[in-house]
Write a structure and sequence with these properties.
The complex is a heterodimer of chains A (175) and B (433). Helices cover 44% and strands 10% of the residues of chain A. Chain A starts with 5 loop residues before the first helix and ends in an 8-residue tail after the last helix. In chain A, a hairpin with a 2-residue loop joins strand 3 and strand 4. Chain B contains 18 helices and 8 strands. In chain B, the strands form 2 sheets. Chain B has a 4-stranded parallel β-sheet, with helices on both faces. In chain B, helix 6 crosses helix 9, helix 9 packs across helix 10 and helix 16 runs antiparallel to helix 17. Classes of the chains: A alpha+beta (175), B alpha/beta (433). At the A-B interface, helix 3, helix 5 and helix 6 of A face strand 3, strand 5, strand 8 and helix 13 of B. Bound molecules: flavin mononucleotide, iron/sulfur cluster and FE2/S2 (inorganic) cluster.
């Protein structure tokens, strides 16, 4: 099926009414539709946690641009995910001050605890573990974000507490 | 009158100041004064006279930057003011403090700046991770609209200004002002060729000013108290105060407002409490990841743009990253170059291909595979990638600054990696790979 037609003739439209309402709000103060490409990608991602090919095609259609052009934009930016991510994204700062203050150790610790390398998602789909550039909290290094929450002055003990807290409902972390 | 205006409203507990509290402390008086009693020309003159230099890293005089915005016979359409709140330079955490603790100071500064250049639309381009700051700024904008400080016919003066918060999708190059404009237009953040300069042809081809958060916050106080007062705040050649920060193995990392011209020692040994027990200072990057190392011999220099420039580095963002004696300088530079390689926008070859190559050579040194010729390769790369004009923007030359100065100040360390076929720091936490 032509993916571009999906939005109009499917029972479940690719872009939901809620997404379209948010995108339209951005368009209302932009000089032309394609100008909101990045905002729109972020809106779609907020609703689905990532941007699938179906969403991307429907969005390109809606903004009057080609899918290739929109994908070129989507893949340029670090925080637009073109692959599915877990329920929670862990972004561990790997920049200079955090590195000085123990990034290597913490990275290994998280990898061991979750059984994933950087860039991977746990088998149970709970966590995706990603590196992040300087998070602007170097005075509290080492730092990571768990979704929108920032965690400062990390050490192994603190990490275990955070990770256990999050995994309790699934029966605890991998040992 | 306070001598530390930027943080006057900021308490230990870092709670954000809301509109009511902000107004109690003379908040928005400068807007009332400027829009009713001062022409844009008067305001521009005050900013020029104040000697304010941009706090985004380059230190360009703000008044001069603004003076290139066309004011008469402007073709029909918008003019834009853009606040650069991308703050992705590793080691930098000052704009965050200003936005999280006193959002109205920035908004007031932006209203005054927009009045001066007669912009009718303003954007705050903020990095995605600053969720709290973005939320507080949106709240502040909404409160200002309700109070008549933003929107149509501000305070009955006929001046209109709409303000929007745009959160980024994450890429360091978005901080470069012309790349930022492309990103605001919904495109990939490749820097643009200059000229035309944004003042003439910026966002959507219209006259645009891009300023750093801290620069714009200063405007509030310059209009409130005058240029002479602002000039008198600085201890040396530069005017005003600045947020300075320290991170790394010091006793008390943090961010503080100090007069321009304060000696570096007062920041690192005074405010930051000196080195953690068991660590010695070997060097520091004075203003973020893309500035040249300085060492102990520079501690008594004044934190002024030209003083630090003469010492072979840049004041940059004023947030200093400390290299201690147990951290490998080669490893630290490798971390920095890897960051720049990762964040290169890919537009030009020396940056896109040269930076990963430099990172790879540094990686070889760290893992004990380095040979003598690698040091020559690195020197060549510093020369080719570091030369202004060989690349389309300043990212690549900036990336070479810590490398080139590390090779100068820590030459022995580089040599030891080659001679010993290993990282001499490999027993400590930050050695080896
Ligand atoms: C690669 C690169 C990244 C930059 N990142 C930032 C940034 O995050 N924030 C900022 O204010 N300026 C940044 N700048 C500087 C801006 O290009 C611009 O000079 C600045 O926003 C101008 O503001 P000012 O005159 O108030 O300093 C960056 C420059 C380069 C070359
Ligand atoms: S120097 Fe690097 S970041 Fe700047 S335009 Fe060239 S490739 Fe892009
Ligand atoms: S280096 Fe990690 S927060 Fe800045």
């Amino acid at each position: 099926m032509n993916s571009k037609a999906q939005n109009s003739n499917q029972a479940e439209p690719v872009l939901t009414a809620a997404e379209l309402a948010e995108i339209d709000k951005e368009i209302s103060h932009a000089p032309y539709r394609a100008a909101v490409a990045i905002d729109a990608l972020k809106i779609v991602q907020k609703h689905h946690r990532w941007v699938s090919d179906e969403s991307l095609n429907a969005l390109a259609d809606y903004l009057g641009m080609s899918s290739a052009e929109l994908d070129g934009i989507a893949t340029f930016y670090n925080l637009i995910y073109r692959k599915p991510v877990g329920e929670k994204v862990i972004s561990l700062c790997d920049s200079v001050t955090c590195w000085i203050k123990g990034y290597n150790r913490l990275q290994k610790h998280i990898s061991e605890r979750l059984g994933v390398e950087l860039g991977e998602t746990t088998d149970d789909g709970q966590y995706t573990f990603l590196p992040a550039p300087c998070l602007g909290a170097c005075d509290r290094a080492p730092v990571m974000m768990l979704e929108d929450e920032q965690h400062n002055n990390l050490d192994e003990k603190k990490l275990d507490k955070i990770l256990i807290l999050r995994t309790q409902k699934n029966g605890g972390i991998k040992e | 009158m306070t001598s530390l205006p930027l943080t006057a409203n900021i308490n230990e507990d870092r709670q954000a100041v809301d509109l009511a509290a902000y107004e109690k402390n003379q908040g928005y008086e400068a807007v009332r004064k400027a829009l009713k009693e001062m022409s844009p020309v008067d305001c521009l003159q005050a900013v020029k006279d104040s000697g304010l230099r941009g706090r985004g890293g380059a230190g360009f005089p703000t008044g001069m930057k603004w003076s290139f915005v066309p004011m008469e016979n402007v073709s029909e359409g918008h003019k834009y003011l853009v606040c650069n709140a991308d703050e992705m330079e590793p080691g930098t955490f000052k704009d965050r403090l200003l936005m999280e603790c006193d959002p109205h100071q920035l908004i007031e500064g932006m209203i005054l700046s927009a009045w001066t250049i007669q912009a009718d639309i303003a954007y705050i381009f903020i990095r995605h991770e600053y969720h709290l700051a973005a939320k507080l700024l949106q709240q502040a904008i909404d409160d200002c609209k309700a109070k008549g400080y933003l929107g149509k016919d501000i305070l009955g003066t006929g001046f209109n200004l709409e303000m929007y918060v745009h959160t980024s999708a994450g890429r360091y190059i978005c901080g470069e002002e012309t790349a930022l404009l492309n990103s605001l237009e919904g495109k990939r953040a490749n820097p643009r060729a200059k000229p035309p300069f944004p003042q003439i042809s910026g966002l959507w081809g219209r006259p645009t000013i891009v300023n750093n958060v801290e620069t714009l916050c200063n405007i509030t106080h310059i209009i409130r108290h005058g240029a002479d007062w602002f000039k008198s705040l600085g201890l040396g050649a530069d005017s005003g105060t600045k947020l300075f920060g320290v991170s790394g193995r010091v006793k008390n990392p943090g961010c503080w407002e100090l007069p321009m011209g304060t000696p570096i020692r007062e920041l690192i040994e005074g405010k930051a409490g000196g080195m953690e027990d068991g660590y010695k200072l070997r060097g520091f990057l004075p203003g973020g990841a893309s500035t040249d190392f300085l060492t102990e011999e520079h501690l008594d220099l004044a934190m002024d743009y030209d003083v630090i420039g003469k010492a072979g580095s840049r004041l940059g963002t004023g947030t200093m990253i400390i290299l201690d004696d147990k951290t490998c300088p080669v490893g630290m530079v490798k971390n920095l170059v890897e960051f720049f390689a990762q964040e290169s926008c890919g537009f030009c070859t020396p940056c896109r291909d040269g930076l990963p190559w430099s990172a790879q050579v540094l990686g070889d040194l760290e893992s004990g595979k380095g040979i003598k010729a690698d040091l020559v390769t690195l020197e060549d790369q510093v020369r080719f990638i570091g030369a202004i004009g060989n690349t389309h923007c300043a990212l690549a030359p900036g990336a070479m600054e810590p490398l080139s100065s590390a090779m100068k100040y820590f030459a022995d360390d580089f040599q030891r990696h080659v001679d010993g076929k290993a990282c001499p720091y490999c027993d400590s936490e930050n050695g080896g790979v």
